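Tokens help. Consider this.
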Amino acid sequence: MGYYGQITNLGLLMELVDIMNKTSRAYQLTILICIFAMPCGWAQAGVVFGNTGLAGGFRWDAAPKTLGGVERSLAGGLRYSVQGGSWQAYRDSFSWSGTTPTVAAFQSAVEGAFSAWTGVDPVSNLGTSLSFVSDFQTNVDSSIVAGVRMGAEIDLFASNLNDAGTRGFSFFNALGSTLTLTSGVTNYNAGSISGADVTINSNPGALYTIDLFRRLLAHELGHAIGLGDVEGDINPSFIDDNFNPNDPLGTLTNSWAGLVDPLNPAASLLSIYSVPPGSTGVGAAGVDILMESRGLGISPNNSVFNLSPLSNDDYGMRQFLYPQAVPEPAALSWLVAAVLVGGLRRRLRVVLTHHTQSGG
């Protein structure tokens, strides 16, 4: 996996290249201004960009925002367009293993990749304010104007990457220093994403099944909303609650989304870790994270057919970037108690009325 970042006066430009390669663990970090040679062996997971520890983290603004003359926020849903302007044109950009999927099946796969990020976390029961809407009337556009990527908020491209890898890469730009969180907090210290481009390899030798295409796109969309690859990115910071290399399966698969402070994610009961990619880290059997660049979390426990491929780590990172307010434990206890007392009183009134009527 290669990662390339460019810092300019127009914001931060990112490219994340994801390759389905389960055997190679080598990676490099390249900043076009400075180049660093990174040794193999260590990786990070639960990665975001533009952060210092738990502070910051680029994400889409929850409040309506116009940048460069175009709307760039979660308001009304993140709009996306596809190269060619239609489902059929975009489908026909790729080569398929076996029978070419119908236009309806391809549309369902793309929509399913987006929907993967909008589902309710089955463990914490936390939902999300993320939503996505197609906008094919807006042509895809890879140009950047004053730090803002043109086109729709998320543009889906096809490009021949000169090899047969079933892979993709993503760019996004981020601007500003404060934004509104999905929990309603205003002036939170973080830059807002100003546009994202996702590119899937259209080399004729790259043969996709509809299920692999959906999984790969779901992974790339994770980048488009601010998540990084777990194998390691420009921010060497894996966000987690309890990682222990002696128990990677237990500590990299437990749910921690509920530990995110929705009013101040930077104050969450979480820490920054360095996590090895091998058997004592993200490479451990059963650690199947969608944001794995190599493998995409595909395993017997998270098959390529799974329509809800996010792991607890993926849900945790979604909650970190796009927090949903949850009741305070004490308030929740009082609410439960109030419901129980209210129900008991209603039941008592019914019983007394019944006895009064019977005694009459």
